Amino acid sequence: MSELDYDTILKGIKPSKQEHEEVMKLSGDLVNVINDTASELGVEVEAALVGSVSKGTWLSGNADIDILMKFPLDTSTKLLKKYGLEIGHETIKKMEGAAEERYASHPYVTGYINDYYIDFVPCYDIKSYKELKSAVDRTLLHTKYIQANLTPKQEDEVVLLKKFMESVGTYGSEFKVGGFSGYLCELMILEYGSFKETIQNAALNWKYGHTIDLMNYQTGGNFKDPLVAVDPVDPNRNVAAALTLQKMSEFVVAAVNFHQEPNESYFKQKTHEMDEEILKELFNNRKTKTVLITFKPPNIPADAVYPQIKKTEHSIVRMVESEGFEVFGSASWTDEINEAVMLIEFEVWELPVLKKHLGPKIWIREHQKRFLDKYPDNAWIEEDRWVVGVPREYTQVLTLLSDLMSGKKSGYLQFGKHLKNRIMADHQILDVKNILDSQSNTSGFIKFLYEYLHPGDKIFR
Amino acid sequence: MSELDYDTILKGIKPSKQEHEEVMKLSGDLVNVINDTASELGVEVEAALVGSVSKGTWLSGNADIDILMKFPLDTSTKLLKKYGLEIGHETIKKMEGAAEERYASHPYVTGYINDYYIDFVPCYDIKSYKELKSAVDRTLLHTKYIQANLTPKQEDEVVLLKKFMESVGTYGSEFKVGGFSGYLCELMILEYGSFKETIQNAALNWKYGHTIDLMNYQTGGNFKDPLVAVDPVDPNRNVAAALTLQKMSEFVVAAVNFHQEPNESYFKQKTHEMDEEILKELFNNRKTKTVLITFKPPNIPADAVYPQIKKTEHSIVRMVESEGFEVFGSASWTDEINEAVMLIEFEVWELPVLKKHLGPKIWIREHQKRFLDKYPDNAWIEEDRWVVGVPREYTQVLTLLSDLMSGKKSGYLQFGKHLKNRIMADHQILDVKNILDSQSNTSGFIKFLYEYLHPGDKIFR
């Protein structure tokens, strides 16, 4: 690896002095307001800044301020929920922000204050994973561990790694991405010391099942995941459990590429000139048939929507392939509000009327009788098995898709739970070329199509 | 099984008194002429009538007269061949017939005399399989065994069984059919006693690997064939070795059908009104694409031609399927002289330009480098494997077939030995509809197409 000017790169991606001061000032104010509000209400609560802001590892412009409200362990869940929401709302009101309730382990309130989004999340004030009551509580331990172990120099290394991950498309543990969480990035820097060492290790040494175990708990063998990072604050948890094999592989290959030829462009989003005409030509040249099923996504949290769309997409692919239509590729996308899309690209989308149906072996006379009663015409023998030519239920994949989506042939399809009724009530099945003709597509949708057509694009520079 | 009038059926299929006398008279004359000719030449040879004529089990109009010329065991192979041909030719000359030389274990001569075909085959005069010098010698032992054990009543039972087999398409051990030999039919009658008992046993009791062992040699376990009939004159030979699983299954099912509903029609060839227009409509309705590869068969014995055509047909099917084209069915046919045909019916005959090509797993960094050097563009990752979209070599199956048959892409195809040069020099690749349009097809070819479209036809009445 030749040397890049990391200081210059960091200047572009680290929060400016002004942003840093602004965020820290706001965070400090919020902690004080919460503590004051709790006192006024006579509730024993202490606010704690957690997450990337508290650890100095956030990317410029990405400061999501997370504040935990720590309740004593003997607080009832009911009171924790009640006061958690009450203090959150009261704080946002005092800070003249806008509030919205959300749900993770408990209900909590998010505030939009001075152009920042702030989560106010109630938790129990635990000292060890053994006292854990909900997943949120663990965040407290993570923050303490990183604050105690990450050096200021290493904070910059985390920022470099996160930005690299973001550019190559592997950052974020939410289901939409299935990539590396911020905490996992921090543990990687603690394990290897620096961004460069992390890249070098991933590029040269990582294999399927690679294990990071900073506290030497030796519990890594309990996990079957592609990457194992034993949580320093909980030996029974794999921090990389949500990382898909796909994203781990993409990161390893991006690391190989970067290691061979380090380049500043790995810290920037790749952008492309892309419009409907270019996309249409690309799809045309493949001589495949690409069909889009579009519908309005259900109003549920993003982390629930993505797996449901994926599940539906995969079930459709299995279904149409079992009917004889060959799928070249598939993908799905949603803006989480108005549009959801499942894309299926076919190698074979028309089939002849006749289909071979295998029957019993001829030796089992009873089965043979039943088979021939059912198919009195046109049965024949291949080796020692009965075969019959039956009319194919669907000769056109578009008809099959239409019947699947409208429920005429729904018994076999596994819809995501919240998708079934919504798709059946309203959806469209369109050829990608017709959609591209309409010229009224959102940039997010255009980007989705571009990325489908260029799947390896982000990891090469 | 209700009772059929088997006497009446037999009247239609057994040789008439006149045919019987004519054949026996001719056979007797031939034996005498051979013995006289041998004496004149001073050669120690004795003629013996063998085969179905000698056993009284031939079907009316099907009398192939087989005469063995038995030489003493100490005769040299050279002299046996020399005198075998010499006596054969001389006998045919004396009988004013036409001669043609052929080849089985030894060269031999076939004569056409008084409208009958007669084989004059030299052999050694063996008393036991232990003295066996060539496959022909065994025929002598078979004939003796059947003559010694089959009763006159059972001769009729053999005739019924042979005719039944012929009508349902399972008679004949030559490669063209792969069915039951005459000798095997005779052994079945000896085993079960009568035609009816044979049908009943096949219908109700036969399984894969069923064994007939008239002499209780208990050597059946040595054979892996679908049906085992230990040769009464040679414990190390399975008389049913040439019977295919296909034909055994067809016979069993025909037996089941006949057993459920005995019917005189099982002793007659099924005939069908069939012409080009009807066939064209049948092919049209399937909405498949049926392609015929036609060529002139090589001038080699029929038993060599059929396996070579089958082998080539199967190799083509495997080849086109490996390129992504789905085959619904295939078959082949030849008149053994002028026409040979391989038929392939496609479910999918056109494919898009793009094809997925799987590369190495990403973990093997060395392989990855080689793969990416080879495919620098458009490679991507699926899970932890490299994938690349490459242009398909063939998007039209007709182009692929053309290149295969002309040798442009021959390395992969396994042609039958004598077919390769012949096909490459001259062949046609045509859609079945175009061939049917020509209206100049032979009845054998039309029958072949009919049977391809009605594969279970003969075993149901």
TrEMBL record, chains A, B:
Top-rank EC class of the record's enzyme: transferase
The lineage, from the top, is:
Archaea, Methanobacteriati, Methanobacteriota, Methanomada group, Methanobacteria
Q: Which InterPro entries match?
A: CAA_C, CCA-adding_arc, CCA_tRNA_nucleotrans_2, NT_2-5OAS_ClassI-CCAase, NT_sf, NuclTrfase_I-like_C, Polymerase_NTP_transf_dom, tRNA_NucTransf2
Positions with a binding annotation for ATP: 52, 55, 142, 162, 171
Cofactor(s), by name: Mg(2+)
Q: Which family does it belong to?
A: Belongs to the tRNA nucleotidyltransferase/poly(A) polymerase family. Archaeal CCA-adding enzyme subfamily.
Binding positions for CTP per the UniProt entry: 52, 55, 142, 162, 171
Any GO BP annotation: RNA repair
Q: Where is the Polymerase nucleotidyl transferase domain?
A: 38-140
Q: Pfam families recorded for this chain?
A: CAA_C (PF21133), NTP_transf_2 (PF01909), tRNA_NucTransf2 (PF09249)
Query: Which CDD domains does the record cross-reference, listed alphabetically?
Result: NT_2-5OAS_ClassI-CCAase (cd05400)
- Where along this sequence does the record place binding of Mg(2+)? 64, 66, 119
Q: Can you name the source organism?
A: Methanobacterium lacus (strain AL-21)
Q: What keywords appear on the UniProt entry?
A: ATP-binding, Magnesium, Metal-binding, Nucleotide-binding, Nucleotidyltransferase, RNA repair, RNA-binding, Transferase, tRNA processing
What is the recorded name of this protein?
CCA-adding enzyme
E.C. designation(s): 2.7.7.72
What is annotated about its quaternary structure and interactions? Homodimer.
Top-level lineage group: Archaea
Q: Which GO terms describe its molecular function?
A: AMPylase activity; ATP binding; CCA tRNA nucleotidyltransferase activity; CCACCA tRNA nucleotidyltransferase activity; magnesium ion binding; tRNA binding
Function recorded in the entry: Catalyzes the addition and repair of the essential 3'-terminal CCA sequence in tRNAs without using a nucleic acid template. Adds these three nucleotides in the order of C, C, and A to the tRNA nucleotide-73, using CTP and ATP as substrates and producing inorganic pyrophosphate. tRNA 3'-terminal CCA addition is required both for tRNA processing and repair. Also involved in tRNA surveillance by mediating tandem CCA addition to generate a CCACCA at the 3' terminus of unstable tRNAs. While stable tRNAs receive only 3'-terminal CCA, unstable tRNAs are marked with CCACCA and rapidly degraded.
**Domain (tRNA nucleotidyltransferase substrate binding) ranges:** 156-268
Give the catalytic activity. Answer: a tRNA precursor + 2 CTP + ATP = a tRNA with a 3' CCA end + 3 diphosphate; L-tyrosyl-[protein] + ATP = O-(5'-adenylyl)-L-tyrosyl-[protein] + diphosphate; O-(5'-adenylyl)-L-tyrosyl-[protein] + ATP = O-[5'-(adenylyl-(5'->3')-adenylyl)]-L-tyrosyl-[protein] + diphosphate; a tRNA with a 3' CCA end + 2 CTP + ATP = a tRNA with a 3' CCACCA end + 3 diphosphate
Give all residue intervals belonging to the CCA-adding enzyme C-terminal domain: 286-430
Q: What else is known?
A: A single active site specifically recognizes both ATP and CTP and is responsible for their addition.
